[in-house]
Specification:
This protein is an alpha+beta fold. The protein has a single domain, classed as Coagulation Factor XIII, Chain A, domain 1, CATH 2.70.50. The protein is built from four helices and nine strands. The strands form two sheets. The protein has a six-stranded mixed sheet with strand order 2-8-7-4-5-9, with no helix packed on it. Strands 1-3-6 form a three-stranded antiparallel sheet, with no helix packed on it. Strand 7 and strand 8 form a beta hairpin. The two termini are 23 Å apart. The chain binds 2-acetamido-2-deoxy-beta-D-glucopyranose (NAG) (6 copies) and copper (II) ion (CU). The site of one 2-acetamido-2-deoxy-beta-D-glucopyranose has 8 residues, from strand 6 and strand 9. One 2-acetamido-2-deoxy-beta-D-glucopyranose binds next to loops.
């Protein structure tokens, strides 16, 4: 497993991480436990919250799948538990590996927050091959929140978004490549890479082939 992961990581660094929430800072990141609802195994709010804007916020991810369905929810208060009841961005499909910066977040009509309101953002994507993958970030709203530092929230080359073919939440659909019109070769190479990662039985040769498939 480690060998396969390492070989993949060396050749295609972004393929190994499912997805990662970089900004606002995640509660924590444990790649092996990302499938644990609601926050990828981090159930306790961080004492260190990111000050995040009431309008025009950004959320920076790093994508390790060639395509993924993504949804962003929020729960209000100091510890929403698993009550992420408000949708900040409904399900869409993202394609391309690497840095992905979602922009222009604002709260839905009728949701009022003031400076100092605490909340937790939950980002979910679909899993390998089904179920969800979760990352959460604890924030404090502020009308004067600073922009993310330069380079923290950017888009990698080739990253793009398209409408999702399903309105279901990503954790209730199967792998995006089976439910979108993404090219067959892309989903094929993704599956190869993902099985090498997940099964851990690939060994160097197969991991190398999977990494090559990703690059191509
Ligand atoms: C928000 O969270 C911070 C740190 O976790 C805490 O000190 C503060 O009292 C909380 N604010 C409110 C309004 O509860
Ligand atoms: C608190 O968060 C800030 C910004 O994300 C980070 O630079 C700092 O290292 C964090 N501190 C701790 C103790 O986690
Ligand atoms: C929204 O945020 C982005 C990224 O921080 C910034 O470049 C842009 O100027 C902001 N737009 C407005 C209208 O504030
Ligand atoms: C990244 O790309 C997405 C999809 O095209 C776009 O909505 C977003 O504004 C871009 N982010 C930045 C920081 O330009
Ligand atoms: C939010 O604020 C608006 C305008 O001040 C007000 O009309 C509305 O009732 C508030 N909504 C809630 C849920 O408090
Ligand atoms: C999927 O995530 C949403 C939002 O957090 C949650 O309400 C729902 O229960 C989750 N579904 C499953 C099957 O875990
Ligand atoms: Cu994955």
């Amino acid at each position: 497993m480690k060998t396969a992961l390492f070989a993949l990581a060396a050749l295609a660094p972004l393929a190994s991480a499912h997805f990662k929430l970089n900004y606002p800072a995640a509660r924590g990141f444990n790649e092996d436990n990302l499938a644990q609802f609601p926050c990828g195994s981090f159930d306790t709010p961080s004492s260190n919250r990111t000050v995040w804007p009431v309008s025009n916020g950004s959320i920076g991810l790093e994508m390790g799948h060639i395509d993924a369905n993504v949804e962003v929810l929020i729960g209000f208060g100091n510890n929403p538990g698993s009550a992420f009841n408000t949708v900040l961005r409904k399900t869409f499909t993202e394609q391309g590996l690497g840095a992905f910066c979602m922009t222009s977040f604002s709260l839905p009509e009728g949701v009022n927050v003031t400076d100092g309101t605490n909340a937790t953002i939950q980002v979910l994507t679909n899993g390998d091959p089904d179920g969800g993958l979760y990352n959460c970030a604890d924030i404090t709203f502020s009308t004067s929140a600073p922009d993310p530092d330069a380079g923290v929230c950017t888009n990698g080359t080739g990253v793009k978004t398209i409408a999702a073919t399903s309105t279901q939440q990503p954790n209730e659909t199967t792998d995006a490549s089976t439910s979108t019109s993404a090219s067959a070769s892309a989903s094929g190479s993704k599956s190869a890479a993902v099985s090498a990662l997940n099964a851990g039985i690939g060994g160097l040769a197969m991991a190398g082939a999977a990494a090559l498939a990703i690059v191509l």
